[in-house]
Design brief:
24 strands; 2 domains; globular; about 325 residues; single chain; alpha+beta; Cathepsin D, subunit A, domain 1; six-stranded antiparallel sheet; nine-stranded mixed sheet
């Protein structure tokens, strides 16, 4: 009970300090709304953890083999991964459960996964995991990253605006969360999995499982990858002659970089409602197809944060309070 009160107090403080929330009545109503949602999930044995934003990425605390390390949460990655040198520092047992030649796609290139090892002990916010499989790579990207394998296993719910992650590895919540969010003025849309509705309960580590959001842009059906590993929302391979060139270059996990252009988008519809209107988004020259899906772009942390998005990975539902 004491721990629960501390969590609610922390969340209340976070909401009270947020510069993204309007003052006055709107502030109080929003604060009450989020506390109600968190409390509902806690009653269903979910545990909340507060992360932080660094370089517009979500980080959360964990302990690997007794060593404290913060991990980055990446819904654009189908598996957990770490580079070889950091795995040695954390004394991850190199059992090489499976050798592989898999290439994990990044923004502009790919990571070569050498083999799969085991995290013998992993502790995240009071949950103890054993023998967690993790992909090992040799790039210079020195981060511990948890992807959709973790998010699905934990039935995670991510409050993007507040950096709050709620997990329950034992059982997903019931439909009361959906009903409460509808009452609080949120709209919803399905998160589309490329494996469809029949993906196995046990996540297969050699299968690519990420989530997409169906949108309508300028009357055309387009697909976005929902990617908390992307700091910025990016549009791919646009034939927009009016796009403005910039001196900015974006760098991906492998160190590869691309020049960024700025494109004006009139509106993006989700479930026949306006999700974004008159917005300037970054664009890069990249053609990307994942298992037959032609991507229009990736929906990154900037928009997920700004549009008060809640990602329910257990139920695969996208919620936002910013659709009209």
């Amino acid at each position: 009970m004491f721990k629960r009160l501390l969590i609610l107090l922390l969340i209340s403080t976070i909401l009270g300090c947020s510069s993204l929330i309007n003052s006055g009545t709107d502030h109080a109503e929003k604060k009450t709304s989020i506390l109600k949602i968190v409390s509902l999930l806690e009653k269903q044995n979910y545990i909340a953890m507060k992360g932080y934003l660094k370089d517009n990425h979500f980080y959360f605390a964990s302990t690997v083999n007794g060593k404290n390390i913060d991990f980055m949460l990446d819904s654009g990655a189908s598996g957990s991964f770490i580079n070889h040198s950091l795995s040695q520092k954390l004394k991850i047992t190199e059992k090489k459960v499976k050798t592989t030649s898999i290439e994990t796609q990044t923004a502009f290139s790919s990571l070569d996964i050498d083999h799969i090892d085991i995290l013998e002990t992993l502790s995240i916010n009071g949950f103890e995991f054993s023998n967690w499989k993790i992909n090992i790579h040799d790039s210079r990207y020195r981060q511990l990253v948890f992807g959709t394998d973790f998010l699905l296993f934990c039935n995670s719910v991510l409050f993007c605006k507040y950096g709050i992650l709620m997990n329950n590895p034992f059982q997903a919540h019931d439909d009361s969360l959906h009903y409460l969010l509808m009452q609080e003025g949120y709209s919803s849309a399905p998160m589309i999995s490329i494996l469809g509705e029949d993906f196995p309960e046990e996540i297969k580590y050699d299968r690519h499982l990420v989530f997409f959001l169906k949108t309508v842009i300028n009357g055309n059906d387009e697909i976005f990858l929902i990617d908390t590993g992307a700091a910025l929302t990016n549009l791919y391979a646009l034939s927009d002659n009016n796009a403005k060139k910039t001196n900015v270059r974006m760098t991906d996990a492998t160190g590869e970089s691309e020049s960024v252009r700025i494109t004006q988008i009139d509106s993006i519809l989700v479930d026949n409602k306006i999700f974004l209107k008159d917005v300037k988004l970054s664009s890069i020259q990249k053609n990307d197809t994942i298992h037959g899906y032609d991507l229009y772009g990736v929906l990154g942390v900037d928009i997920l944060n700004r549009n008060d998005v809640i990602l329910d990975f257990g139920k695969r539902i996208f919620f936002t309070s910013r659709m009209t």
